[in-house]
TrEMBL record:
This is tRNA threonylcarbamoyladenosine biosynthesis protein TsaB. Pfam families: TsaD (PF00814). InterPro entries: ATPase_NBD, Gcp-like_dom, T6A_TsaB. Residues 201-227 are annotated as: Disordered. Residues 202-216 have a biased composition (Basic and acidic residues). Gene3D superfamilies: 3.30.420.40. PANTHER family: TRNA N6-ADENOSINE THREONYLCARBAMOYLTRANSFERASE, TRNA THREONYLCARBAMOYLADENOSINE BIOSYNTHESIS PROTEIN TSAB. It comes from the Bacteria.
Length: 227
C-alpha cells in the first residue's frame, strides 16, 4: 500500500510518500513554518512525488492530520487531501494530531501510557492520553495546564508534544515524575502514514478536530444594521 501523508496542523509543513509493503519511505520533506502552508504544500507534494519517481495514480491512500492545531493550517491540509482523493478516486483518512505525536513512543513500548500535549496558549494545552494496546485513556480535549497535569499524573506516564514541558513544570507535588518528557513540536508524516494504514475508515473522516473556537473572532460592534 502506497500512502501519501501530509501535515499542516502546527508550525510545519510536511509530506511523505510511504510504502507500507516494505515499510520504506520513498520520499519525505519537512519545513518548519508558522504560516504560509497554503503556498508551500502543493509544491512540496510535487517535489515529494518527483523525488520518489511516483505518479498519483499509484497512490492507494491519502492521510492528513485533522487537529487540533492551527485553524488555517488544518483547512489547508484537509482541503488538499480531499482534493487529491477526489481527483484520483482514492480514499482519504484523517487522524488526530495528538495520536500521531504519540505513535513513535507507543510503537517503541506501549506498556507505559503516553500523554500527548500541544501548547494551546493562554495557559491551556490540547491533551490526549493513550495506554496499552492503543486504548484511549483521555480523549482529545483542551484543558488548563494545571488540570491536564493532574489528569495524567496518576501513575507512570510519558509526555510528548510542544506542551510536554508545560505539563512537567506543573506536575503535582508528590506524584510520580514523568518517565520521559519529549518536546516533539510537530507530527512525523511517516508515522501518520503508518497509523492510516491500519485505521478504521469509518472513524477517520478527513474533517477538522478543532476542540475550541478560534482566538480571532469577527468584529460585531461596528456593524451597520441590515434593513
Amino acid at each position: 500500500m502506497l500512502i501519501l501523508a501530509i501535515d499542516t496542523a502546527l508550525e510545519a509543513c510536511s509530506a511523505a510518500l510511504h510504502d507500507m509493503a516494505t515499510d520504506q519511505t520513498r520520499a519525505v520533506e519537512h519545513v518548519v513554518m508558522a504560516r504560509g502552508h497554503a503556498e508551500q504544500l502543493i509544491p512540496m507534494v510535487e517535489r515529494v512525488m518527483a523525488g520518489a519517481g511516483a505518479d498519483f495514480s499509484e497512490i492507494d491512500l491519502f492521510a492528513v492530520t485533522v487537529g487540533p492545531g492551527s485553524f488555517t493550517g488544518l483547512r489547508v491540509g484537509i482541503s488538499a487531501a480531499r482534493g487529491f482523493g477526489l481527483a484520483t478516486g482514492k480514499p482519504v483518512l484523517g487522524l488526530p494530531t495528538l495520536t500521531v505525536l504519540a505513535a513513535p513512543l507507543l510503537a517503541r513500548d506501549d506498556a507505559v501510557p503516553v500523554a500527548a500535549a500541544i501548547d494551546a496558549r493562554h495557559g491551556n494545552v490540547y491533551l490526549q492520553m493513550i495506554g496499552p494496546a492503543g486504548r484511549i485513556l483521555v480523549s482529545p480535549r483542551v484543558m488548563s495546564v494545571k488540570d491536564a497535569a493532574r489528569s495524567v499524573a496518576n501513575g507512570p506516564v510519558r509526555l510528548v508534544g510542544s506542551g510536554a514541558g508545560l505539563l512537567a513544570d506543573a506536575w503535582p507535588s508528590g506524584a510520580q515524575p514523568p518517565v520521559e518528557v519529549r518536546a516533539t513540536a510537530t507530527p512525523d508524516p511517516v508515522w501518520l502514514a503508518r497509523i492510516a494504514s491500519v485505521a478504521d475508515p469509518s472513524r477517520s473522516e478527513p474533517k477538522p478536530l478543532y476542540l475550541r473556537d478560534a482566538d480571532a473572532k469577527p468584529q460585531t460592534g461596528g456593524r451597520i444594521a441590515r434593513r
